[in-house]
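User: Could you check the structure of this?
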Amino acid sequence: LTCACNLNKTKNHIQLLKFISETDKKIELNLIGSKLNTQIKYFYKLKQISFNLNKKQNIKINFLGKRKRNYIRSFYKKTHVYILPSLSEGLSVSLTEAMSSGCICLVSKNSNHSNVINSKNGFIFNLNKKSFLTQFEKICNLNKRDYVSIRSNGYNTVKNLIQKGYKLKKNF
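Assistant: Sure, the predicted structure tokens are below.
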């Protein structure tokens, strides 16, 4: 799993960690982004929860810090699932970049992403454990054909957004 965004309360990382701690799947979560100086307490709480989860055999959480766009885009190529558990969000550039790179996307319903993500190009979860685990399990159980189809549909969704005038910060 990869999540690329600022590490702050509205991005809802702590809730995400609580959700993934409930699965028996082997998970490596890569958090790309920087902490905000205004939310130091949140960041240290996130680090403490991560430290405790890293003690579990099936979970590994990596803090990769702030990275340049080229690094992030190349990282997406190696990522199976992009996740964005935001409490509130406009249309995220990182989401569209992840989709265009072939990631399966899992996003919270409380964001504007539900206008972009649908059952054919990604997965949406309500901000509760049951919904998250249900959608995550669906991703884990995708057959090869559906996996390829969802990735392709995600790519095409971003292509259509660009044709309609949406601009990515970096060339698609």
